[in-house]
Amino acid sequence: HSRRLSLPYEFVVLNDSSPNAWALPGGKIAINRGLLLALNNEAELAAVLAHEIVHADARHSAQSQELGSIISIGQVLASELLSNAGYNHQAIQQGIAYGGLYGQTRYSRSRELEADLYGMKYMSAAGYDSRAAISLQKTFVELSKDAKADSFNQLFASHPPSQERVNANQQTSLLLPLNGERGEDRYRQELRLLRKRQPAYALSDQAKTAIADKKYRQAINLADQAIAIEPMESEFYEVKGAAQTKIDQASAALISLNKAVALNKHYYSPVLRRGILQVNLKAYDLAEQDLLASVKLAPSQIAFLTLAEIAQQKQNCPAEKRYLRQALSASNKNRAAINQQLTALNGRC
């Protein structure tokens, strides 16, 4: 039902607790686990996805990038993990790795109104009750007034809710059929397992906060509780391994990260984290394998800088220079220091 049917649309769920959704140029649409759990029915999900499809249709994300309105690099944590994503979602992984995530774009008032209007038309044409877009926007307006609704701040920063949007959606609904589906029972059934696992994800989020607060043993304990609830989630082992690394439990951390990679070898973050740990253990060949695997999934500056460190240890000057140049290409951060390293290397090889 979209205007640009030629776009190769891809939809992916990010394993992230913050309620958000966003569109990459080229038809890549992402919705966070946290937003799935905040919705009440299939029609509200259709409203969210249709809204993001319009952003992709109208090239809003690409235009925002061209205007330089993407948030600065580094504000999205690399620990946000992609759920069961393989190579088909490489572009989205790269977006996370770079940190300049399109989900942080603040869309203008006119673009949000346009996405609401055509999104409601799309969802109605697909057989859904367009009035779900009204109830959803009303919920977001109320939550935006609630200082306790911190988890929604990211969504509201990129998609600011307003009474104007509620009013416009109400007017649009008058022009659309009223016999669309809501799909409440079906949605509840589909999310049953995810809701059952939600306490484990909450514990993992607490563990990440504990790591940020340098409470590493508490983080390990919280990660263990999450694992006890859901032992097949890669993220929980990675969080545990990150905390163990901080208190010099390298061997235990390696066991945790091995498990994280085994459970989700198609996501760059645990592979990258294990590679960095292998450098600390001076297992340079194993580290190099992991780091090269991680940059195939998502080229990050830290991976290239660590590969340059390994090349330095192996006294491979050409490789060190190559990785430093790739580090410059991967991010605008640390440019002065990296250029200084390259200048020093140019005098040697």
Describe the largest sheet.
Answer: 4 strands, mixed
Order of helices and strands: EEEHHHEHHHHHHHHHHHHHHH
Query: How many strands in all?
Result: 4
Give the end-to-end Cα distance, rounded to a whole number of Å.
58 Å
Low-confidence stretches: 62-92, 94-104
Number of domains: 2
Radius of gyration: 22 Å
Classification by helices and strands: mainly alpha
- What is the global morphology? globular
Please, how many helices?
18
Strand order of the largest sheet: 2-3-1-4
What is the helix fraction of residues, given as a range? Answer: 55-70%
| Mean pLDDT metric | 85
Share in β-strands: under 5%
| Quaternary assembly | single chain
Explain how this protein is built.
The chain has 349 residues and is mainly alpha-helical. The chain folds into 2 domains: 10-187, no CATH class; 192-264, Serine Threonine Protein Phosphatase 5, Tetratricopeptide repeat (Alpha Horseshoe), CATH 1.25.40. The chain is built from 18 helices and 4 strands. Helix 11 (216-229) runs antiparallel to helix 12. It is globular and about 70 Å long. Mean pLDDT is 85; it is low at 62-92 and 94-104.
